Amino acid sequence: MILTATFLSAFAGAALILLLPERQAPLARWIALLTALTGLGFASAAFVGYDNTPAAPHFQYLTRIPWVPSLGISFSTGADGISLVMLVLTGIIAVTGVLFSWNVSHRSRAFFAFYLTIIGGVYGVFQSFDLFLLFVFYEIVIVPKYFLIAAWGSTNRQYGAMKLTMYSVAGSALVLLALIATYAASGAHSFDLFTLADPAKVHFAPAFQAWAFPVMFIGFAVLAGMWPLHTWAPTGHVAAPTAVSMLLAGVVMKLGSYSALRVAMTLFPQGLEQWRMVIAVLATAGIVFGALVALAQKDLKFTVGYSSIAHMGFVLLGLMTLNLAGLGGSVLQMFSHGIIGGLLFAVVGRMIYDRTHTRDIAELGRMNLTKALPFAALTFTIASVASMGLPGFSGFIAEFTILSGSWKAFPWLLIPAGVGVVITVAFTLRALQQVFFPSGEPSADVHPFDPITFPEKLGALMLIAATLFIGLFPSVLLDPILRSFHSPLMQKLLVEVPK
Amino acid sequence: MTNILFSLAPESILTITALLVLGLGVSVPNSRSLITSAALLGGLIAAAAILLFPMDANLLHGMVVINPLARIFKLVILGLSLVSVVFASESFPKNHFAESLALILFSTIGMMVLVGTEDLLMIFLALELTSIPLYILAAFDKESSGSAEAGLKYFLIGSVSSAFLLYGLSLIYGVTGSTNLLTISQLSGSPDSLLIAGIVLTLAGFGFKIAAVPFQIWAPDVYAGAPTAAAALIASGSKVAGIFILARILTTGLGHWAGAAGWGQFEPGWAPVLALMAAASIVLGNVTALVQSNVKRLLAYSAIAHGGYLLLGLCSANRESLTAVLFYVVIYALTTAGAFGVVAIVEKQRGGSRLEDFDGLSKSSPVLALCLLVFFISLAGIPPLAGFFGKFYLFTSALANGQHLWLVIVAIAMNAVSLYYYLIVLKHAFVLPAPDDIRPANAPASKILVAALALAVLALGLAPDLLLKPISVAGKTPPHIATSTVPPNDQ
């Protein structure tokens, strides 16, 4: 119940905002904030209340109500450590996203209604254990994204919105095809993940897995920004309004990687075995390519957009290691990049672009931003340092565990991945230096920008605190994550079963 | 005799209502509300007659067949035609208003007879009774040249298709010696060439009626030119009746001669013909819709595509997929009727149905825009709306015997493409700014009805069992939509 309350409250908040009369429109953001806080509260309560003792069941908070019995569809939700980590991430991003959209006044009711609809869909995906239900939530996210970007976005927004939406829907089409084929091939007359992924109950022929796995995995991976199907992400991120960039990088891309892990990989272990190398190579290509392209960008938001591709490459690489370190690191990286990516987009989109109306790195360098917007400079520095993977922040521990996992699985991929890490440091430092600490004489005149508002500071502090806390105490998340890989559902993924 | 009267009571009530409406049109031609109320009241009484006195009957050797499934579809058709009556009452031209409502009712009678018969002759007669009033309705707006063109095109192509159909049905009768579908189904053996010709001609005739490629040519002009309320009926009620009776002819009557439509495993019969028509409709409908600038034409191409999805379901001819087809055609009809309702109101506000006429709809009439969003997103097959579940069930059941994977791949790929053109319309409604000169539209009943349809589409998406269960339970009553006659198509 406490889990379903997360998405129910989000949808209820969206409906409430739609019902607001026009003259009460300023209330919309307060309702959105309260709804997001409620969701975060429920998610955190579920996280704290999750019984981590060895004897406790892996999946808790299970709810199961028949929905369309003639097709074997039920409303089935629950959570293990992986789900809970993602739910908490969704809560944090939802709250900070509202804080960073506090200045939205143009059609604010529609904005926040669409925003909360996305949040509700995301919460739903992370707790669904019926594949039909999961797909329903997964698709609910698609259409509101389009409107948020096309109506409230910036650069080339209608093009970016349509491109992003068509990529998402193409990915969903692949998933839908694989899903229907899976249902037909299983003969189990059920969409229940626990049933379908149980080799004792359902057996998928290797020939079927050999095509169903890549179709489904790639369908999900489109949303996770897998190279070379990632091009929607930078364009979409740049076109989107700040809160939506944060959502996209923070949680929507994670829908792809989470579902790829939860559904595609657990259903088709043999297919996974066949395609593992291919995907690992694509993931590494994403790390290197994303970092290289980020290095060449003139637009600060594009730099952050391509850095997302590189960081998501680590997530996919971690998934393919099929050992505890890599898989656990991958889930941790989803959380970590959600926070850090969200923070970077918040600084670039809200704190800087909304005031300077430019994202050109050279032009920003001439504005003496360290003096004009000291808080933005400080936040961006911290975010950059976290993004580079400096110890003490969550990014370090996540990428380090992924790399140590890949060392065991694909030692030969460690060289390009390591090069990717170095380039990541390079482009992050380059952006930081050219925007905030340009060489040459700093101009004496300080631009009179609006000061950073309280909601922005609060949001930034929340995100910084989250990444620092996890960087210093990673076991808070890693313990439940690692424990979840020993559940009957996930355990068969591990190539070397630990004692 | 009394049996016949009782079993045809709903149709009789509608006939009396239609005559009454014509009479009112002569005596009080200017009282639109009175005429509309009379038509609605008659329709509601007919619906009550179906609901309150359910009886099963099979009279005159299958000429009149009433069973639970037929009753459900009579109700659905009646409901859809009352929806068009309401739209017509607020958007039809002033002159000859009563006649237009009477024509809608006459056409409805045809559709209701159509779903309640198993006899080829009655099927043909009922189809004519359905179509002829629709031809007139399409041409009803005398001040618009588009409407005249629509009427003429619809009439000419419709008559040709009737000729095809009559020819096909008479060949089937000639070979099998019966006009009764059940008797025909008891014959077996390999089909001779005459029967195959008959089947193909019948399919061509129905292809015209439901606008499947390559017989779709009339649809865009008729949808765009006809008065919107008439287009709504053509797109919804007549489609439901057409698909229902096509399913009945193919599965009840010609079940033996389905053939097979698996990739690379075609066997002669109606299934491969249907499969090719389905694939071509899905591709052509969705791709052509991408470049439309008029929303009614766009809906026409979307209708062609949706006809393709429905034919895809018919190809599989197992019980699941028939239930899915019948479920989806109802969902589609509700959705598209609602979409035409929105178009009718927008036409009244802005004077047209081009994409630009939808600019800023969310600002000028937010509820209407939200309904449009619901209908279009449902047509695009996005959850949690009914269109998603309908397509999902359709594709799932089409894959059940594993041989139509190629068709399902085409359908899912093209369905993804379709989101593009629906989003383009929604972009005009939600993203682009509104023009300044908007007359408020005085169409309260249509607005309420559109909102109710949107709620229905949402409710059926969240709880599809509300409609799915009655259809699947009713479909199990043998032998009217019986599929046991279809030999299993082993690969």
Would you write up a description of this structure?
- The complex is a heterodimer of chains A (499) and B (491).
- Chain A is 73% helix and 3% strand.
- With 499 residues, chain A is mostly helical.
- Chain A is globular and about 75 Å long.
- Chain B is mostly helical and 491 residues long.
- Chain B has one domain.
- Helix content of chain B is 73%, strand content 2%.
- A two-stranded antiparallel ribbon of chain B has the order 1-2. In chain B, strands 3-4 form a two-stranded antiparallel sheet.
- In chain B, β3 and β4 form a beta hairpin.
- In chain B, α4 packs antiparallel against α12 and α15 packs antiparallel against α18.
- The C terminus of chain B is likely disordered.
- The chains are: A mainly alpha (499), B mainly alpha (491).
How many structural domains can be distinguished in the coordinates of chain B? Answer: 1
Counting DSSP E segments of at least 2 residues, the number of strands of chain A comes to 2
Strand order of the largest sheet of chain A: 1-2
Order of helices and strands of chain A: HHEEHHHHHHHHHHHHHHHHHHHH
In short:
The complex is a heterodimer of chains A (499) and B (491). Helix content of chain A is 73%, strand content 3%. With 499 residues, chain A is mostly helical.
Brief descriptors of the model:
heterodimer; A: 499 residues; mainly alpha; two-stranded antiparallel ribbon; 22 helices; 2 strands; 3% strand; B: 491 residues; 21 helices; 4 strands; disordered C terminus
Which helices and strands occur, and which strands form pairs?
The complex is a heterodimer of chains A (499) and B (491).
Chain A: H1 4-19, H2 27-49, E1 60-68, E2 73-79, H3 81-100, H4 108-125, H5 131-140, H6 142-152, H7 157-186, H8 193-196, H9 206-223, H10 232-239, H11 242-267, H12 269-295, H13 300-321, H14 324-356, H15 361-365, H16 369-372, H17 374-388, H18 394-409, H19 414-436, H20 454-472, H21 475-484, H22 488-491
Antiparallel strand pairs in A: 1-2
Helix pairs in contact in A: 1-2, 1-4, 2-3, 2-4, 3-4, 3-11, 3-14, 3-20, 4-5, 4-6, 4-11, 5-7, 6-7, 7-9, 7-10, 9-11, 9-12, 10-11, 10-13, 11-13, 11-14, 12-13, 12-19, 13-14, 13-18, 13-19, 14-17, 14-18, 14-20, 14-21, 17-19, 17-20, 18-20
Chain B: H1 2-7, H2 9-27, H3 32-52, E1 57-59, E2 64-66, H4 68-91, H5 97-115, H6 120-138, H7 145-176, H8 181-186, H9 193-209, H10 219-225, H11 228-235, H12 237-253, E3 260-262, E4 265-267, H13 270-289, H14 295-316, H15 319-350, H16 361-364, H17 366-379, H18 386-398, H19 405-430, H20 444-462, H21 465-475
Antiparallel strand pairs in B: 1-2, 3-4
